[in-house]
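Hi support team,

I submitted a single chain yesterday and got back a structure, but I'm not sure I'm reading the token output correctly. Could someone confirm the output below corresponds to the sequence I sent? I've pasted both exactly as they appear in my results page.

Thanks,
R.
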Amino acid sequence: MKLKMILLFSFLIIEVFSTTAQNHTASVSGLIKDNVSKESVPFANVLIKNASDQKFIAGTVTSEDGRFTIPNITSGNYLLEITSTGFKMKTQKLFIGNLSEYLDLNSIEIEPDINNLAEVVVTNKPSGSSNQIDKKVFSVADNITQSGGSVLQSMQSLPGVTTNDGKIQLRGNDKVIILIDGKQTALTGFGNQSGLDNIPASAIEKIEIINNPSSKFDANGNAGIINIIYKKNKQEGFNGKIGISSGYGALWERKANLPSVRPQYQMTPKINPSLSLNYRKEKINAYLQVDYLYTETLNKNEFVNRTYDDGTVINQQTVRNRDTHFTTLKTGIDWNYNENNTFAFSGLFGSEKIIDNGDEPFFNQDYSQRLRLWQFLEDELKTTVMASASYEHKFMGAGHKLNAGINYTYHREDEKYFFTNTLPDFIGQDAFKLLSDEKVLDLNVDYVRPLKYGRFETGFKFRNREIPTNMQFFPGENSPIDAAAGGWAVYKEIIPALYSNYIYETNKIEAEIGLRLEYVKLNYDVNPDHPTYKSNGYNYTEPFPSVRFGYKINEQNKITAFYNRRVDRPNEVDIRIFPKYDDAEIIKVGNPALKPQFTSAFELGYKKSIEKGSLIASLYYRIINGTITRIATTVPGSTLIYNVFQNADKSTSAGIEAIYTQELTSWYSFNLNGNLYQNTIDAFSVTNLYPQPSTYFGERQQMVSGNLKWNNTLLFDKTLKGQISMIYLAPDIIAQGKINSRFSVDLGIKKTVQKGKGEVFLNASDIFNTLIIQKEVQGMGFSYNSKDYYETQVIRFGYSYKF
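Hi R., thanks for writing in. Yes, this is the structure output for that exact sequence:
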């Protein structure tokens, strides 16, 4: 019945949702030849005209070898007209689609005879949409309600995107790969995502969402890919932008602390200065982007009630006051050596300093007795350095090119914890230190050959990744810390991969078929003295096909279909053998026996152009084998809960996503997007080995969930713009339980000053303070409910100036 409800609702919601359309452009190239002598024709006139009214669009003259290139032609239907002294005029159809940036017409032969002119009329149509068959692109500057915040916050209003525990979810799934300028980096994670809440949105130009990646992309990430594009100006001469934003969060106390807890953060300050510089002269383009973000945050304020089958009840609170200093610097130079060869060099530096002061009291059922007080200080420094070099060779004919690149990333995680463990009869002092150095080398070669009706692309990528980790525990008197679980571990990963894609496009059909062949070898060497875990690893050679198809019914309507197979490889943190004690009695542990999960994804899409608006709706279905999730268990005689990553057999997700954008008047437009899905986790059983074997039998879970977002834009005048965003997230299942619904409203206003060179903004997030994370978990022999009143309400203001 629930699946029927989804399908019924899907046909209703299709009539409501849509997305904005913009024009796609491409370069057109070819070679003009004499059809008798087969020799090239120099200095021939090549014109592009509109097919409907034959209005002139663009033109050029062929070079001495008969070649021509006409850049930046908007997608649509045209006439290509060729004239040259001593030859007949030749006119032929020309269709520019949305899938390729380059169109190679190959050789075009013209006939000698100056006196006979011929003309052919075509019936192709303009299409033009920024929502291409493979991705959706969003400008960060358009998100006024989250200006001055982090990248994570800036994404919250995007279609299909939700956030949970500091992670991005696409269509309710957090297995999302985050790229920076098309590359994986330690700044945002090579496996599962990280660090998005500390990257300033001020450094970002745009965000690309790729729900169905082609075989060109790494096979990891079943939910899709988010590509974050840093700012990089290409205007001539010297130019730049400087800005500063500030704000305050946790404006008042949402829920009072339990007794004996240090005060939670209130009126937390934020500051984000930024600088962007660019110099472009002849063959050189150099750029620099510098951002600093300082925040104080009530990072966590969670109240948990644990109930055990023997009648024991424990109430606890976890307060985490966080200070963060995050500095990013991205610089580079592009060198156009000549018309056919370009070199690019770039570097990125990131430094993230985190200080957490945490308090965690534990009380009995009626709060009459404090059982324990666990306090900690976390001092963590993350340092990231990335260096990239690339080379591009352009063959004869626009878009025919070979790219080669090398990318090296170094990431250090230096983490220290200091604990005070207060019980009724003693006070203990404990500590641990974690040091992890991640080194990743990526090599890639990509080849692209434009064709008359699309393009062919192929390439090779090789990755070598190594992460030695060392954890040292320093237990105090009667320490609850498992000091024997420390030591060293080394993560080693080698991934060579080959891919090929063929793209075909006519005025009616858009199609792409690709295959990626990937070999993975992972070794995880563990300290042989570890009490539970031994060395583990895995290897596989797997194909990852991708298919995309689009059919244009007419000028207003288009249907699409997608299929791809993807994998989620466990990240080093997922298999890390060391217990984490930022919660003293709900302890997170990795699992070195964790294996990849494989996903087959299917999608049907529909797009409709509407006057001053448009619509996109998609039906999707995912089948996941070896579902990766955390499973909570206990051991006999203890109330401690251990959260361990496991493979929980098969799960599925079926749903509809839709986006509707409409300009109702010259001063008001809105975007309404929604996602309705049914998640199912099949019955499974797993055994948590740490700290001793404990088996969990999970029953089949199923729930209909979704989200709805309504973004409203008000244009008060040419210089003043406002925005109102509303987000509703329905209840959803998690392993062993569910997460309850959430709702928030954000406001923002932006004004252009100083003749367009300056800009000021003011915004507020979660103005009604309604966003609370509520979870319900049911384990074997216990259950717990939690409510996290972390900081969600923030007021920000700022100023920027372009020069």
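A quick pointer for reading it: The first helix runs from residue 2 to 13. Let us know if anything else looks off.

Best,
Support desk
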